[in-house]
Amino acid sequence: MTELTLKAKHDHLAKVASTRDYVKALAEFVWNALDADADEVAVEFSRNALDGLDSILIRDNGSGISKTRAEHDFESLGDSWKLQASRTALNSRVIHGKEGQGRLKFYSLARKANWVSVYEEEGSLLTLSIAIDADSLHKSSVSEPAKSENGAARGTILELAPLKDTFDWLTSEEARSEFDAIFAPYILQYPGVSIVYDGRLVDPNATIERAYEFDRSIIVCPGRVVKDLSLRVIEWKSKAGSRKIYFGGETGVVLGSQSANVTAPGFDFSVYAYSPFFQDIANSNLLEVDGLTDPDFARVLEYIRDTIGDYFRVRQAEKSSELIQELIDAGVYPYEGDPRDEVERRERQVFDIATHAVSSYSRDFKKADNSLKKITLGLLREAISHNPESVSRILRAVFNLPQVRQDEFSSLLQKTELGHIISASSLIADRVVALKVLGEMVFEPKHRHTIKERGELDVLV
Questions:
Q1: Which of 30, 164, 298, 327 is the most core-located residue (most Cβ within 10 A)?
Q2: pLDDT 10s digits, 223-250
Q3: Which residues lie below 8 Å from residue 367, measured CB to CB, with a gap of 6+?
Q4: CA dihedral in degrees (375, 380, 382, 386; nearest 10)?
């Protein structure tokens, strides 16, 4: 048994290893397996008699960890073999890790990490075990290699136990969806790879509703120009989408993420942004800090969110158009023909989005007959025409729309500034009508004998 000691102290390593993103912590070990040329990786949860979690296992059929590599990598931090390679040795796949810190991410999950690895050396299969205790992250115990038992196959089994908490959330649909979102681009790029999470295969093709890739962009930032920003959005069929922006380097491997903070009612999605710029930010440990002071990253993040926000406003309009056509065919749509001007076009856009929200979440509206729908939609149109800011209150009081959907609609109305445009246009139209009436009172001969004090009206006009 060999004991390896990192030069860094335990307190520093604990800060490096700590994370509240437990899915990302597990993902680090999956990335390590993929970087070792594994074609099959499985994350398994061992449960006790009460269905609670006892331990977490990550299995793979990769090339394993040799004695030489273990002594080098587990005795150093930031000097991983991956620094000298951009692709894996056997399958020439892109490599995720570079700094050799991923193995310490177990610290937030378990009190101990145990690796049992089978690797090939000089035509023989050898077995090696490595152990790290959460209380002594700077120390690693590495066994002497032993000849593997008959029937053994290359690969590594990592056991995280005992766990520091219950971590039942890791088996939820939300956690699974987040895990799937992290590895979806990798599976799409390398379809021959199999990744299983808690018994279910990560299969993006079965869960993707729609995918869209934007043209590459150049963004001028305060301190630099970010070239070749690749942006992709995936809409998921499931209702537990992560709604995150995932950042990757030029290799397309996810380095980190942040909340999307994009108003997109009714959509579950993930955004993938790739650029060498994000590798630089990741190296500075700033990639997952929302509201950070780096002005270049803040500008890029603003561009991504604006672009995705515009995309989903178009998608919302597309979804609404199908419903609107049904209402037109039923004769209950309160507008006729094409919009008369830009103001009415924007007014219709707000109306269509509001109507889609009502149809999606109000059972009473769905069950109503066409005559009632016609009256209701007519009143909604009048509200939007004269006081669009009141629409949110109407959606709550009349249609009993859930609060979260009211908030989404209000945010959408505010971000598109449609309400301000319609309100201003309505005010101008009302004033034009008033001036027209006053003008007739002063200048039309038929009113000459019935309207008094015309001199004062003349001055007013």
A1: 30
A2: 999 988 999 999 998 765 578 999 988 7
A3: none
A4: 170
